[in-house]
Amino acid sequence: MGDVMRLRYGQSLRNMNIPYNRKMKIEFAYNVGHFETRLEDYIYINYRKINNQDVLPYFIFLNTVVGVKVEKITTRRLWMLEKKFKRRLHDLIHFQLIGTNGTHIQSLINLEEICDGCVKCSNIAQKCLEYGPLRFSTLQTMIYSKNYKKLHVTDKLFENIAEYCISKSKSKEECFKELDKTILSTISCDELAIWICESRVLPDELTDPKFDHRHMPREVIDIILRKWNVKSIKLSILHITNEEVCSVEWLRYNYFTRVRLNDPYLEKKQSDLKFSHVEVSLSYSLYCVRDLGNRQLVVNEPKGYDNFIPNIRRMFPTDQISMELPHWYFILG
Q1: Which range of residues forms the domain containing residue 59?
Q2: What would you measure as the largest C-alpha separation in the chain, in angstroms?
Q3: At what angle do helices 155-167 and 218-227 cross, to 10 degrees?
Q4: Which of 46, 71, 169, 262 has CB atoms 3.0–4.6 Å from 22's, for a disulfide?
Q5: Does residue 257 sit in the same domain as residue 327?
């Protein structure tokens, strides 16, 4: 790295107070109005714009000059990057920030969205206190004993687990036995973060999407909550993820109870579990948070907030529930 680059990054680090910052947020951000014409030749690292060609020297500088020992890495929307670069970025994060042994890393969030659960990520999952969202391939490697401070899962994972258990069985009874073997009680977590995508579509809706909450297999959710000894819940309703199409094979069988958070209230069975706290995050929601605002809804438009909180209380009983909202522009706009 040349002297000019050292000086430039040195000034950036002084501005960012990097020597004391062991948290890295790496994201692809763009103006939502320019979605179709968005450029893919840069990312943001701790809210500073970095061109693609500068990422490697930037990481090397953090390692060799500053000596930062990164403890927490959060990525967001990296799946939207050009394929070749996102794979390279994935490997750079592992080799430059995490390291071969992952000695210092305690939290790794959302990196699997660009590798779909590779060996390097699943190996690091065993070392972290906070990890996810889990892909099914990573879940299958979790045969060890460990208590996590926080695990992240998705509605897509629930579908994948249901369909895996169906594929391994010839009856509902066999399916539930397979489910019991798939979710191990050797894993536990203090908090479970559930990511729900509000813009997923069914395979036959690709040309005419009807954005709404989608069904989830209730028994899969319940066994995770029970066997992992979950103490608190965070529900994050996300407008868009890279898991855009629902799996529907499990819906063809009458094995699992179908649940949605905006179903009629009386259809929900009350859970016998109790959680210390449930947090509902709508920070990255569009449809669900829109219907929370005081506005005239379009007739026959999916209503993301109908029965939303009552159903959450039935599925995740608690005496303490909180809600995180975005800027009011999204609600009133």
Answers
A1: 1-125
A2: 68
A3: 100
A4: 71
A5: yes
